Amino acid sequence: MGSHIDIQQLVTIAKQAGDAIMQIYQQEFAVAFKQDSSPLTEADQAAHRIIQQGLNKLEPILPVLSEEGSHSEFAIRKNWQRFWLVDPLDGTKEFIKKNGEFTVNIALIEQGRPVMAVVHAPALGRCYWAAEGQGAWREQDQHIKQIHLATPPEGDERPWRIVGSRSHGSPEFEAYLSRFINPQIVAMGSSLKFCLVAEGSADIYPRLGPTSEWDTAAAHCIVNEAGGKVINAETGDELRYNQREGLLNPHFIVQAR
To answer: Positive or negative, the Cα torsion across 43, 91, 50, 23?
Structure first.
């Protein structure tokens, strides 16, 4: 299960990509949305290059499926037993707003499941990593600790803490909230939403809108190893990766096992 790959090597690659992003993030920029030379695109591509090179050195034979790379057709991809699934810069709105809530996502997928991953938030000085059977960990300003999901509230001992998006609440999200009594909404950007649940800072994260597989795979692994699960909102089955032509996820819920 990715056993001969040292998770710390993956952490190092994510941090190198984060450093490259921060050099651009710290410049004064006015974002030109669609131009190829926007700081966003620059940061994205710089991170992508570093990750691609790092992963190729680490495991030369494993394919890399990155949001910023070329996407192999499913006819080829469907034969991949192991591959890297990467989002070099997740949380573009957060990058542009400069609120720091963006991440570098790197996941190792085996047989459709994320088995090793790093989610690094360079602007927050925070890094999460996990590997199957090794637990989930969080590093904040050089302080490292293992993380676990919180026990969900019972009765009215405390309100449910539900992760929502900063940008906008959809009608689906509002409908979902109506199942809870006075829930507390916790806002966060990028795949850090998953990490809030993984570390026990929130109880549940319903994602009732579109996401791509590279948005979720790394943080999904961290949730799994912290004692949670990521399930299809309609079927209740665990989310799986690289199972179909498109790379969009179904709506899903991040919750305790």
So the answer is: positive
